[in-house]
Amino acid sequence: MAASPASLVSGALGHVPIVGGPKVATQQSAAFTFIVGATYNEGGSAERLSSAWHMADPIYLDNHATTRVDPRVLEAMLPYFTEIYGNAASTSHGFGHEAKEAVDNARAEIAAGIGGKPREIVFTSGATESNNLAIRGVCERQNRRGNHLVTVRTEHRAVLDPIERLGRRGFEVTLLEVEQAGSSRAGRLDPDQLRQALRDDTLLVSVMLANNEIGILQPIAEIAEICHQRGALLHCDATQAVGRIPVDVLALGVDLMSFTAHKIYGPKGVGALWVRRSSPAVRLEPQIAGGGHEGGFRSGTLNVPGIVGFAKALALCIEEMPREQPRLAELRDRLFAGLTSELDGVSLNGPSLEQDGLRLAGNLNVSFEYVDGEALLMNMQDVAVSSGSACTSANPEPSHVLRALGLADEAVRSSLRFGLGRFNTDEDVSVAIASVAEVVRRLRKLSSMA
Ligand SMILES: Cc1ncc(COP(=O)(O)O)c(C=O)c1O
Prior knowledge:
Blueprint: H1 5-8, E1 23-28, E2 33-40, E3 46-48, E4 59-60, H2 71-77, H3 79-82, H4 94-113, E5 121-124, H5 127-141, E6 148-152, H6 157-168, E7 172-176, H7 191-197, E8 202-206, H8 220-229, E9 233-237, H9 249-252, E10 256-260, E11 271-275, H10 304-342, E12 346-348, E13 363-368, H11 373-379, E14 383-384, H12 400-404, H13 409-413, E15 415-419, H14 426-449
Parallel strand pairs: 4-14, 6-7, 6-8, 8-9, 9-10
Antiparallel strand pairs: 1-2, 2-3, 5-11, 10-11, 12-13, 13-15
Helix pairs in contact: 2-10, 4-10, 5-6, 10-14
């Protein structure tokens, strides 16, 4: 039997001292002190904090939608709200200088984290904007080369939608298929398919590094080579990959790469586009014009605390990756093993869990026969997960990713996506297994009585 959420919360109501034993990160402001919610063991990795304010919260297993800000990230950001609050572009005084210095440092750190140069980083409001800037920016600036675009059916809507819009404006679009359900590499793009789709007038190809629903990793280095042989540019949406797997823009060979802070325990509302500036330099039409910030690629006052937090978040992910990712893979495997031993009719969506290098460590996507995913979600009070892509839930529809795998509508509708992250524990997995199994059994019983 798994513990109930209430039995998981063991006491800690007040402040836990920072000295010795497990450390608790606390933040202080003039008005109040609060526990920011994670403990650190001696190795520096965070564990779930059993504190009273989690008592009513379900266990968060939706780390592909977003992640909780790491307390260490918050701590790095705080001074930039109230102390170092200058505009990074107003360098006629110390406030601006300090802000600019913080941005410069963050830019250098982020660039180093992905193998790029500082001047190749364009800060944006997030990966949606980065994708739009990359795709629309290239098409508006370089369309003399051709007007053929290539992407994949399983891309995020933040890629598919701008490409669809360009399609309505006269660009020709090829949507590539992926390996189908049943294959151990379900969701993977076959590079030969891309090779066949490319034409002399192909301007841009956009392929994501890691999928946000089924965690499949695409062979981007091979894809980049194929694109470049035909003179096409490659944009890569690496939103789910950066911070979770090693990412090096030069080794991957991409020309443009999008990523965002809120998937890596950083703040929401800040992202970046890496733009190749040499051999060859990629030219882009800015999508937001104004003061000419970010090398003219993206105007607007920089979000200094967000950028500082972004850099800190990425640095922590890179530092902790060798321990964090194997731990998440273990939790993920235990979650799947637990669900399949508790329940019949559970099937894995996406690539095999067994083969390394095919799937993000923290990703699990499963369908539960005879159960509606939405009903499942509504009945699961202990666990926060999503059915399909929460990033696109402003416009809920059955997952286009699972459909692209060739899954029947019922299997798509009965799917749940689990995203395990830094703050999840073994105990969380036990609760999730028990909770999902209980609700699935209950719903199946109800539907068999109907
Ligand atoms: C693969 C992928 N691309 C883009 C986005 C959009 O990112 P943002 O929320 O930073 O705009 C998301 C998630 O939201 C995503 O998972």
